[in-house]
Amino acid sequence: MSELLSPPADGAGIRLTQTQKDLIGGSVGGIAQVLVGQPFDIVKVRIQTAPPGTYASPLDCATKLLKADGPLGFYKGTLTPLLGIGACVSIQFGALEGTKRFFAGRAKGRELNLGELWMSGAFAGVANTVVANPVEHIRIRLQTQPAVTPRLYNGPLDCAAKLYKQGGGLKGVFKGQVPTMWRDGVGYGCYFMAYEALVQRHLRTTGLSREEVSPLWAVTYGAAAGYALWFSIYPVDVIKSKLQTDSLDPAKRIYKGMIDCTRQTWRTQGLKGFLGGLAPTLIRSPFANGATFVAFELAMRAMN
After folding, report:
1. For 8, phi and psi rounded to 5 degrees?
2. Is residue 29 part of a domain?
3. Which pLDDT score is estimated for 80?
4. Per-residue pLDDT for 8 more than 90?
5. Pairwise CA distance, residues 286 & 293, whole Å
6. Alpha-carbon distance 143 to 42, whole Å?
7. Number of C-beta neighbours around residue 302 at 10 A
8. Residues 21 and 303 sit within 8 Å (Cβ to Cβ)
9. How many structural domains are present in the chain?
10. Three-state helix/strand/coil letters over 286-299
11. What gap in Å lies between CA 195 and CA 79, rounded to an integer?
12. Taking residues 52-73, what's their average pLDDT?
């Protein structure tokens, strides 16, 4: 439904469709997520992809990063996710809200059930991988390149160009697409299901409308949703990160694919190999995901 935003004196105004509002709100949420979560994310990625024994703990990783690159080192590779994750979260919320409206039309006034909420989130997750996977691949390459001169990549565009050239075209840029689809399909199904179910329960027990829910509750429910996301798919995220830091040269490649990476990780590191970087992820999650949802909800209220 179109609504009038900030009408000038002559009565003219900017009309946005509900889908456009969803996309804009998602972009705002995505930018908030990156700014809050990036320092934690770079620590997570370095622990996930470093040889065993490189870091004694997340704190040790953060300390070494600070010593080598200074405070700005925690924001290495931020430009790509700032632009890309904004687009990704925009796609997520646009696909989520559209799918929710589809199920709501079939529900005939009842609340959406957990299965419908999960499928809405899963569709949103898979839809966003077209942008999310190359953005994360570029970000991970930038985050993990050594602090030496000359650098392997001189920024996101140079990295993308080299991934395309050295990786055999688009498949080099989209390396890790399959595990990303598994991760985001399952993970965002759980993520959005948890958030929406908590919001539904809140509305049901308080009698409030969605616009009346306190931002504090949006942060709280967003934090819970973040834990639902990562506890459901963290090992797949580790495999994705390992594949996206592997050599682009087939002759030097460590892993043949997702299954081979899983086998090698289990054989060499056991269960511990699938949990590297989990601590900074769980510390980051409530802040980044809480910021995502409260930014989205406030942006939607402003537009409405």
Report:
1. -75, 180
2. yes
3. 66
4. no
5. 11
6. 6
7. 13
8. yes
9. 1
10. HHHHHHHHHHHHHH
11. 28
12. 87
Instruction: Show the tokens assigned to 169.
Output: 């075209």
CB 46 within 8 A of CB 55: yes
Q: Is residue 37 part of a domain?
A: yes
d(CA 302, CA 30): 17
Q: Which two tokens stand for residue 71?
A: 């405070």
- Give me the CATH number covering residue 288: 1.50.40.10
Question: What is 237-282 written as a DSSP string?
Answer: HHHHHHHHTS-SSGGG-S-SSHHHHHHHHHHHHGGGGGSTTHHHHH
**Model confidence, pTM:** 0.80
Judged on CB neighbours under 10 Å (0-12, 13-18, 19+), 292 is buried
pLDDT band at 290; cut points 50, 70, 90: very high
Give 3-state DSSP helix, strand, coil % of the chain, rounded to 5. 75, 0, 20
Its domain, for residue 245, covers 18-299
